[in-house]
Amino acid sequence: MDALVAFGVHLGGLRGRRHGLVRTGEVDACDGIVGAQRARALTCRRRRVRVAMSSASEDDTRHPVSEADEKAFRDLSERLRRTNVYFVGMMGSGKSSVGKLFAQRLKYRFLDTDVTIERLTKSSITELFANSGEAAFRELETAVLAEMASYTDAVISTGGGIVLNTKNWSFLQTGLVCWLDVPVDVLVQRLADDTTRPLLQGQDPAQKLSEILAKREAMYKNADVHVPVTEAMSNEAIAQEACRLITNFVKANPPKSAALYPGKMGSLDS
Ligand SMILES: Nc1ncnc2c1ncn2[C@@H]1O[C@H](COP(=O)(O)OP(=O)(O)O)[C@@H](O)[C@H]1O
Ligand SMILES: O=C(O)C1=C[C@@H](OP(=O)(O)O)[C@@H](O)[C@H](O)C1
Asked: Which keywords, in A-to-Z order, does the entry hold (predicted)?
């Protein structure tokens, strides 16, 4: 069975309406039923996303941290006032590796859209692209991001293509968006033996990555914070630099306290 259908992405009234199954004359009679079914399906889908998100945030690796770093992250955490941090950038830019470390230092939970999608659908991104197509993957990516945006105190690593859909920005902009900007030649080195990024398979990776970046760069530039990454930088150094630049941004643009909106957290769990 199609992984996305199994997951229930197309459940409820959405597909029926799109394909005209609920016609105008029938709306009065059955809109309440369709609406209730759709609401139940969406609630069910949200629960499943949350379950996948909680397993995606497991990470037992502990990295040593200097006193100065600890202080810098504590300061940032206070300034962020529970606002989420989203990492965006090209495939291989280090969103997952750096994001995990950054979350640990900040004492935030770590969430990863790709990992959550894989857990939800019980299939790899490669299988999803092959069996359901990129459009279906993007639909699911948006649903997962929407759920993540309803959390606070989270560092969220996104898939490289998340910036493509304008709707995704309405979720990204609820937090602080940080672009890990890595030169294409470094991405090529990092992804030389990678088989998990379907958009790169069977292509000249350097050419493909350049084409993708040309299409997305303007979107990445919409990020609040731009972190230029060089080949020599370790993940620790990138996390430190991101912390410094995000702190500067937050000093100039203090966020409202997420704690003012307690309803944002855990509404489905309670
Ligand atoms: N600072 C770094 N230096 C060298 N290799 C890195 C660095 N950050 C990430 N990598 C490697 O690049 C690959 C992609 O990293 P990943 O964190 O999965 O990127 P993304 O989530 O942006 O796709 C992985 O093999 C990872 O080990
Ligand atoms: O750039 C993209 O369109 C994609 C990037 C991937 O995530 P990473 O950026 O983590 O590799 C993954 O979401 C999918 O293969 C599509």
From this structure: Amino-acid biosynthesis, Aromatic amino acid biosynthesis, ATP-binding, Kinase, Nucleotide-binding, Transferase
For the CA atoms of 245, 80, 213, 93, the dihedral, rounded to the nearest 10 degrees, stands at 80
Confidence of residue 253 (pLDDT cuts 50, 70, 90): very high
- The CATH number covering residue 91 comes to 3.40.50.300
Residue 30 lies in a domain: no
Query: What DSSP state is assigned to residue 258?
Result: G
> Using one digit for the tens of pLDDT, what is the confidence trace for 36-46?
666 677 677 77
Predicted TM-score (pTM) of this structure: 0.84
Residue 104 lies inside a defined structural domain of this protein = yes
Closest atom of ligand 2 to CA, residue 90:
9
CA torsion angle for 55, 61, 66, 69 (degrees, to 10)?
-20
- For ligand 2, atom 4, the nearest C-alpha belongs to 160
The dihedral sign for the CA sequence 180, 181, 183, 188: positive
- Out of 197, 199, 215, give the residue to mutate to test ligand 2, the one with the largest number of ligand atoms within 8 Å of its CB: 197
> What stretches of 158-231 adopt beta strand conformation (E)?
176-181, 225-228
